[in-house]
Recover the amino acids of this structure.
């Protein structure tokens, strides 16, 4: 079974060498979102994008996230987020895109995923080549 500790390596293995192929990563990520993770009560999936200068340089961040709530002995411990993030040089068009969409705001995970693919904020970057791709997991 997938655990929070092995979620990143599990997803990376599923993606394989196609880490810069946004469409393939998205398809793999969608499947991963439906798989159970040990101890997970609710699936918390996030799609977010926008131009930010988190690194000191303005970049367009295009990010698929699965969030995990971690419990130890039935007590809340912390949250972790597993990111599939694509970075782009901001263009005038990309500067117009900023969104944060959580799966918890939809009836089910399929409704959420089907909605995401209709967004222009999602469609446009799919056709571009990222300057960097990162898959990472962090405690928040």
């Amino acid at each position: 079974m997938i655990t929070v500790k092995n979620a990143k390596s599990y997803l990376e293995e599923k993606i394989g060498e196609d880490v810069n192929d946004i469409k393939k990563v998205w398809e793999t990520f969608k499947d991963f979102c439906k798989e159970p993770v040990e101890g997970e009560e609710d699936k918390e999936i996030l799609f977010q994008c926008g131009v930010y200068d988190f690194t000191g340089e303005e970049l367009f961040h295009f990010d698929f996230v699965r969030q995990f709530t971690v419990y130890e002995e039935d007590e809340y411990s912390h949250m972790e987020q597993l990111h599939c993030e694509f970075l782009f040089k901001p263009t005038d068009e990309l500067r117009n895109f900023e969104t944060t969409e959580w799966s918890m705001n939809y009836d089910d995970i399929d409704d959420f995923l089907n909605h995401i693919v209709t967004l222009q904020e999602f469609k446009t970057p799919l056709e571009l080549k990222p300057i960097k791709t990162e898959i990472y997991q962090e405690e928040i």
